[in-house]
Design a protein that fits this description.
globular, alpha/beta, 5 helices
Length: 265
């Protein structure tokens, strides 16, 4: 296929191994790659935007293989994609990739994910976009994840990427030989227990550290075909999970279930 103009961002920052691996693999395949991402880690920022301070962008080409143009920006992941599309790129990209994230983005956790937010910025303006994560904070080998990502996007682009489709790819932290087949999945409902750890500083003042363990319910999945596994169950079985998402959050239940808000005279 002809070279794809690819914009790559993330929430782990410009120095993260995941984004460098993905950008370098895409460039070596002959695609035109530009990286615009935070200049430091900004995980779990959701779709936050920087409104009360300036956004600065500095070139960082030297962190990547030859031919990759790169900027490290002082803003959030969503800021980075907006800045790239409106100021830094000479023309609109054919594809936006966000990742490879260090850690999972599964189920309803996507609502606080900076990785997914960066990809969503592309979907909102009609650009094919995908978020990519390796489902472990300790896993350090991103080569297979990068190769799999490019195989998927090249195939989907060749088949005409549907409008308003955001793909969320999670890859289990294991070697290729131990990995099962990739499958379409639906979003899990992710809940946590013991969300905060209460602590005391040396001056005797109380502070809180966000913590919490996910309550894993492999059968608790949201909308989607009933024969599709949840994304959490798919990763637990050492299989890559790819979930189709769209930005439309409008209620999909029956209209008759909505409360009656008619007010009296």
């Amino acid at each position: 296929m002809k070279p794809i103009k690819i914009l790559i961002s993330n929430d782990d920052g410009v120095f993260a191994e995941g984004i460098r691996t993905l950008a370098n693999i895409a460039a070596k395949l002959g695609h035109e790659v530009t990286v615009v991402c935070p200049d430091q880690e900004r995980s779990a920022t959701g779709h936050g935007l920087t409104l009360q301070s300036p956004i600065r962008a500095k070139r960082a080409d030297e962190l990547f293989t030859d031919g990759v143009k790169a900027w490290g920006c002082s803003g959030t992941p969503a800021d980075c994609v907006k800045l790239a599309l409106h100021e830094l790129l000479g023309q609109e990209p054919d594809l936006i990739l966000s990742g490879i994230n260090h850690g999972p983005n599964l189920g309803t956790d996507i609502f606080c994910s900076g990785t997914v937010a960066a990809a969503l910025e592309g979907t909102l303006v009609g650009i094919p976009s995908m978020a990519v994560s390796v489902a472990s904070f300790q896993w350090k080998d991103f080569d297979f994840a990068g190769t799999l990502t490019m195989e998927i996007v090249e195939k989907v682009i060749a088949q005409n990427w549907p409008k308003k489709l955001l793909l969320n790819l999670n890859i289990p932290p294991c070697n290729k030989q131990e990995m099962g087949a990739i499958n379409w999945t639906r979003l899990s409902i992710r809940q946590y227990e013991e969300q905060f750890s209460r602590r005391t500083d040396p001056r005797g003042d109380t502070y809180f550290w966000m913590a919490g363990e996910a309550i894993t319910d492999l059968e608790s999945a949201g909308d989607g075909p009933s024969n599709w596994p949840s994304d959490v169950a798919q990763i637990a079985s050492n299989c890559p999970s790819i979930t189709p998402i769209q930005p439309d959050l409008f209620w999909r239940g029956s209209i008759t279930e909505l409360p009656n808000i008619a007010l009296g005279n």
